[in-house]
């Protein structure tokens, strides 16, 4: 074994672990429905590859090699287990598994795996972590720190969810017909939850969370590649790319928070915006509207500032109207009120906020209190505005945003506020919270 | 895979309306039989006819009533053979009792 052969073997194995992991797990688990078993068998196959390849050379199709070895391990495992616990149901897939010959092109079952992970029978809170683990190969500790929970708790929840997939008989397939849209919505929600977690770390400074937004976009790309005719999948990818295009611009060089209205459109990533716009256009030509297309369209109306210097507030208001009609979400109502304030003034915005102020879900929703504070400042109610800013600060977990809110509170003027500045400040609140 | 569909609904209402509701349930069972997925099933008498048995410290305790007191009780079951959970859930959703109470879908754990 030469050092260079070992290096090459390791490099090939690492590349497959990075790019092809989910494909191999998906294929191995699709018949047995045993995700944990598939992961273990694949880990053993990788270990065998690192022993075998440096001596015998990297095989012509390393993925097929790994698949064959992992299949053998999977079948051995079931044969051993059958003595302890009879598994008549395993016999059918076992026969298929043994009969399957290595395909020249490894079929992509990752979408089926995602649908299994985001099945309605799986607890909604564990769907995104489960997809990250099975499709992208993250370990429980990495996922736990990304989702700010303990590794032990996350590990247990992942194990429980995988057991449920196997024992409850959750299928590994992309549902057809009328089932597809609602089930796809669950998959997209899980991907978006992943993106939202990553978004909370705007500078990518937190090493543990840095890639979560990129990973979510990667998952979105898989969905779009495998279901190119599903408008909502395109909508989600467009939404994430729009947000991603502005991610860096949310901080200045010194790490201070820069609200949307004060961002220079030149600091946005033009290539990502162009891609996002193209995806949204593609989605608009397909049947089926939905939440993600509407939210992507809101982002598109903000991106209009690149060309026209101002966000398209009447479009944004109408889009939030449509979103509110379909979701009834108080969060959407807050954004709609902010758009209304831009169109008809702060009194109209405040009146719109008052219509949802009794919703307890908004008690601890920072953007509601920040929006309220800005609008109160604009109508000259500075004391009320100060209290609302303070409440918003207490609800914000990002210190840079807290500092921004504090600066805003300290610049409150008891006299008539300047209309143009205040207008810009209200706009600044939009879209900073994506969910 | 075999799944047990366990039917839970308001026990008093179920017993009172049995004659009205039974034809709908019968049609549903016929549909399952035609689809070739039906293994077994029964309706059960109400909680008034129910007795629970516990053995504690070697003593058999016989108590009038169900395992747990609740308005909604197990009222019957269907055992079906389908390829996966989605198929079982689709059949459960067609059960007339699902519109009134709930149908619990439990995979059979083969011996």
Give a concise summary.
By secondary structure, chain A is mostly helical. Among the domains of chain A are: 105 residues; 114 residues, Alpha Horseshoe (Serine Threonine Protein Phosphatase 5, Tetratricopeptide repeat). Chain A has 22 helices and no strands.
Number of domains of chain B: 1
Question: What is the molecular shape of chain B?
Answer: globular
Provide the low-confidence segments of chain A as ranges: 417-429, 431-435
N-to-C SSE string of chain A, H for helix and E for strand: HHHHHHHHHHHHHHHHHHHHHH
Rg of chain B is: 16 Å
Quaternary form: heterodimer
Provide the β-strand percentage band of chain B: 35-45%
Determine the fraction of residues in helical runs of chain A and give it as a percent range.
Answer: 55-70%
The run of helices and strands of chain B is EHHEEEEHE
Walkthrough of the structure:
The complex is a heterodimer of chains A (435) and B (111). In chain A, 70% of the residues lie in helices and 0% in strands. Chain A has 435 residues and is mostly helical. The longest helix of chain A has 23 residues. Chain A is elongated, with a radius of gyration of 25 Å. The longest helix of chain B has 17 residues. Chain B is an alpha+beta fold and 111 residues long. Chain B has a single domain, classed as Dimeric alpha+beta barrel (Alpha-Beta Plaits), CATH 3.30.70. Chain B contains 3 helices and 6 strands, in the order βααββββαβ. At the A-B interface, loops of A face helix 3 of B.
Layout of SSEs?
The complex is a heterodimer of chains A (435) and B (111).
Chain A: H1 3-19, H2 21-32, H3 35-56, H4 62-84, H5 88-99, H6 110-117, H7 124-136, H8 140-146, H9 151-168, H10 180-199, H11 212-226, H12 231-245, H13 270-284, H14 291-303, H15 305-308, H16 313-327, H17 330-344, H18 346-354, H19 366-378, H20 382-395, H21 399-410, H22 419-429
Chain B: E1 2-10, H1 11-16, H2 18-34, E2 38-43, E3 51-56, E4 59-64, E5 72-81, H3 85-94, E6 102-107
